Amino acid sequence: MTLAPLNDSDLDRLEQVLEADVFQGDAMRLDEIQAILCAIVSGPIPVAPAVWLPDVLGKGAEKTDDPQVAEALELLMRLNNDIAAALLADETVSPVLYPIDESCENYDYAAWADSYVYGAGLAGDWYELAGKHAEDLSELLEPMFLLNGMLKEDVEKSGDRWFSPAEEARLIDDIQENLPVIVQALYNFWRNKRSGGTVRNEEPKSGRNDPCPCGSGRKFKQCCGRPDKLN
Fold first, then answer.
1. Which of 36, 61, 164, 184 is 20–30 Å from 85 (CA)?
2. Distance CA 203, CA 199 (A)
3. Tens digits of per-residue pLDDT, 144-198?
4. Which stretches of 89-178 are DSSP H helices?
5. Dist. CA 8–CA 25, nearest whole Å
6. What angle do CA 196, 200, 206 make, to 5 degrees?
């Protein structure tokens, strides 16, 4: 039986069901679930619902005889199918985002990116599975690591120079605006790799830690290879 696409009312209902007592507060938020599913349907190998549902719903996922759990399962499978269909059709996916504060001016992109990275890990080591294209994959994933703060943490731990506050803010704004395109590019990376198509241009290029060929004196990843130039 083909499951019908979700409409706005269905998404509102899914949000409500995820807060039901049967899940005891263990269920993830809708934004986190969407991000995880975007990574799962994009990845190199299939990830069965039996793998991701316990992470998404917590222990409540085991109570399949509960009407609210059964409803949540149906809605989640429909959401999974909708995301897969949209990315397959190159329609991109608009991220579900929650405001960080009551002003509703800033949204929790960090949680979305962090959940995407978590979802990617459910399919194994993406870098290992990317093989000779691991460097290309690393570049495509860098915006996610910038949004969730991991890139900044790694750069500062290594003692390298990070962007100025103004540069960082501009980069983050650009990545936030282009997040649907970034997600689509990651999906297309694995789709092309699975089909044996061309993943990226294979012309010689600088390594991420090599001096930038432009002569700035900075590392390539912090100059012409910065996250804002990945797409």
1. 61
2. 12
3. 999 999 999 999 899 999 999 999 999 999 999 999 999 999 999 999 998 875 5
4. 109-121, 126-130, 134-147, 150-157, 165-177
5. 23
6. 140
Angle between helices 134-147 and 150-157 (to 10 degrees): 100
User: Structure pTM?
Assistant: 0.83
Distance CA 17, CA 184 (A): 28
Is pLDDT of 127 > 90? yes
Amino acid at 210: D
User: Number of C-alpha atoms within 13 angstroms, CB side, residue 212?
Assistant: 13
CA 103 to CA 83: how far, in whole Å?
29
Report the alpha-carbon distance of residue 39 to residue 44 in Å, rounded. Answer: 10
Residues with Cβ within 8 Å of residue 205, at least 6 apart in sequence? none
